[in-house]
Amino acid sequence: MKIGFIGLGVMGGPMVGHLRAAGHDLAVWARRPESAAALVAEGVPLCATPSELAARSEVVITIVTASADVEALAFGPNGLAAGFAPGGIHLDMSTIAPATARSLAARYAERGIGWVDAPVSGGGQGARDATLAIMAGAEAATLARVRPLLGVLGKRIVHIGPPGAGQVAKACNQMIMVSAIQACAEAFRLAGAHGVDKAAVLRALAGGSAGSRVLEVMGAKMVERDFAAGVEARLHHKDFAILMEEAARLGAPLPVAAQVWQQLDALMGAGWGRDDTASLLRVLEG
Amino acid sequence: MDVGFIGLGLMGRPMALNLLKAGHRVQVWSRRRESMQPLLEAGAGDCASAAEVARRAAVTISMVADAPDVEQVTLGPDGVADGAAPGHIHIDMSTIAPAAAQSIAARLSARGVLALDAPVSGGEPGAIAGTLTIMVGGEADACARVQPLFEAMGKSITRIGEAGAGQVAKACNQIITGVGVAAVAEALNFASKSGVDGAKVREALLGGFAYSRILENHGQRMLERNFKPGFKAWMHQKDVRIVMGEAHRLGVALPTAAATAQLFNGMIGCGMGEDDSVAMLKLLERMSGGLGE
C-alpha cells in the first residue's frame, strides 16, 4: 500500500521500520527535515509538504504530540486535507482530545476522506517489538481498510466505536496507568520510610495480587532510581489535562485521577518533565 | 462620569444600577435585549452594540460569562475596540483565566484602549448592596481614574498588580471559597449523619476558630435547604476549571482544590448545575447513603 508517515520520534521511528519491512511503499514528511535524513539515505522519498505527502498516499499515518499539531497537519496551510484524493484515509495514532478527533473526522467526511483515531499503548518498547495495544475509533469500513497496517504495528487491535472512541479508550488507559504509577511510587516511598529493602518488596509483590505491568516496569525503575525517560512525564501531564478537562465538561467526578494530576503538576514544577514518570517517587521524597 | 455597561445578568444588572444611583451617566447594551429593560427604565441610555456603548462613554465595563464572551464584546465585530476613542478605558469585571486577561489587555492596548481586569467577590447580595470586593490588574493611572466607578459598586477595592493580576487574586478567592463550601457541606453532612443538629453545630462554630463568612452564609442556606442561586454550581465549576488549568500550566499542585473540582463535576453530572453551589450538600448526602433531595 502507498503510505505516508509523519512523526519520526521514539514511537514513529520503529513503526516506519515495520511498515517498510512488510513491503509497503512509504514516503515521509518531517517538520525538521534532518530528522528524516537516515530514511532519505535509504531511499525513502521526503515530501515538501503534508499536502504533497497526502497526494501520493492512500493512507497517511501521523503520530505527533498534541491536538493542535494534528489539527495543523490536517487542515493547516498545505495540510493533508488539501492533498488527499477522495477515499484517502488519515490514520492518526497520536494521543489527542476525543473532541478534536470527532471534529477532524467530521471535516474529513465532508470531503469524502476517511479518518481513524488509533492511539496506542505499550511505549517505545511496544513500538520496537510491534506489540502495541491499539484502540481504534472509526467507521467499520474505514477501519477494515487500514487493519492490515495496524496488524504490522501491534498485537491487540480493538475497534472501540465511531471516531473519537479510540481516544476515549486511550484516556481511560492513561488514567489507570499513571494512577498505578502513583500507587507504586507511594508504596516505595513507604517502604523507603521504613528502611526496608525496596528491591525485595518489588520481587515479593510482583507474584501477588498487586502484580501488574506497571509495578514490574516502573517499580523496577523506581528501585534502581533510573529516572531517564521511557515516556517523558510531560506527555502524561499533557494527557491528564485533556482527560480532566473532558471530565469537567461531562460532569464526571474522577477523585483519584485529580490527585494524580496534582502530583504531575508538582513533578513539572520541580523541572522533571523530560524525565520518566517514575519521577513521581521523587515528588513524594520532597 | 460617562460609563458604558455590557452584560446585565445576575451580577451586571445591580452593578449598573448602582452606577446610576451614584450619579454616573450609564449606557447599556446586552446580547439579550430583555435584560436591558430594568436599566432603561432606570434612565440608562439604549445602545445597539458594544461599539456604540464605547462611542458614547469614556469608560466601558463588561460583566459576562467567560473569556470568549469578553473577547467577542471587546475585540469582535462591533466590539468596544471598534467604537473606542484613543485613551478609552475598558474594565472587564468577569472571571476569566489570568492568561486570557493578559492577552486581551495586550490586544486592546494595541488598539489604543487601556484595559483593566477587575473581577469581584461578594455574589449577587454584594452586587445589590454595592459592597463587592474588587481586585484590579492593570496600569495604576487607569485604575486611579476609574476609582469613583469602583466605589459605586464595591467596598474593598485593591489594585493587585499589572494586567491579569486581578484574575490571579480572583483565582485565589475561588480556591478558598470552593474548598470552603465543600468543607462546610462536609461538616454539616457529617453532623447530620452523626445524629446531631447541624444548626447547633453551626451556631457553636461561628464563635470559634472555624468561623468564616461561608460557614455563616452558605452554612445557613444549606441548613434551610435553600439551593436557589445565588451563585450557580456550573459557574463555580467553571471558575475552578480555570484555576486547575492555570495550575497545570504553571506546574503547581493544588490537591485540595482538585478534590473540590471533582465534587463540582459530580454536581454537574447529577443535574445540579443550575442550583447554587451550596447544593454540594445534596451530592455529599447521596455519597453517604442518603437521597440528597
Write up this protein.
The complex is a heterodimer of chains A (286) and B (293). By secondary structure, chain A is α/β, with parallel strands linked by helices. Chain A has 2 domains: 2-161, NAD(P)-binding Rossmann-like Domain (Rossmann fold, 3-Layer(aba) Sandwich), CATH 3.40.50; 168-285, N-(1-d-carboxylethyl)-l-norvaline Dehydrogenase, domain 2. Helix content of chain A is 55%, strand content 13%. Chain A contains 14 helices and 8 strands. Chain A has helices at residues 12-21, 37-41, 50-55, 67-75, 80-83, 98-110, 123-129, 140-153, 165-194, 198-206, 213-223, 233-250, 255-269, 280-285; strands spanning 2-6, 25-29, 59-62, 89-92, 114-117, 120-121, 132-137, 154-161. Chain B has 2 domains: 2-162, 3-Layer(aba) Sandwich (Rossmann fold); 169-286, N-(1-d-carboxylethyl)-l-norvaline Dehydrogenase, domain 2 (Orthogonal Bundle). Chain B is 53% helix and 14% strand. Chain B is built from 15 helices and 9 strands. The N and C termini of chain B lie far apart (48 Å). Chain A binds chain B through residues 237, 240-241, 244-245, 247-248, 250-255, 258-259, 261-263, 265-270, 273, and chain B through 237, 241, 244-245, 247-248, 250-255, 258-259, 261-270, 273.
Record keyword descriptors for this entry:
heterodimer, A: 286 residues, alpha/beta, Rossmann fold, N-(1-d-carboxylethyl)-l-norvaline Dehydrogenase, domain 2, 2 domains, five-stranded parallel beta sheet, three-stranded mixed beta sheet, 8 strands, globular, B: 293 residues, six-stranded parallel beta sheet, 14% strand
